Amino acid sequence: MKKACGFKTQPSTYSIGLAPTSRATCRACKQGVGKGEIRVVTHAFVKPGRTHDFVCHARCATTAVVKSMVGVYGSVERVPMAEGMNAETREGVCALLERAVVEK
Question: Are 31 and 24 in contact (CB under 8 A)?
Fold first, then answer.
């Protein structure tokens, strides 16, 4: 019999931004995410007060990740974006992620 965990789980949240350092590794391609590269971060709920961040390049985002983002925010354009990204970069990232859903 499975034990109850005693707290209500929460859905993951997401953000898109520029990597502040080059320490993270992409979950998809296993390559480093360089400083200043565009990345997608999944903020996974672990337990109350604790989350874990999973990082991937925007170009490596899987269909499942993009569909989950759309499920949480309604559209790719509504996903929180980091400050410092200009409008052109923001539009390019949104188009890239939307293509990932259509093509795969």
Answer: no
- Domains detected in the chain: 13-103 (3.30.1740.10)
Q: Say what the pTM is.
A: 0.84
- Per-residue confidence of the chain (104 residues) as pLDDT tens digits? 556 667 778 888 999 999 999 999 999 999 999 999 999 999 998 888 888 999 999 999 999 999 999 999 999 999 999 877 888 888 999 899 888 777 65
Rounded Cα distance between 103 and 92, Å, is 16
Q: Label residues 81-94 b or e (16+ Cβ within 10 Å = b).
A: beeebeeeeeeebb
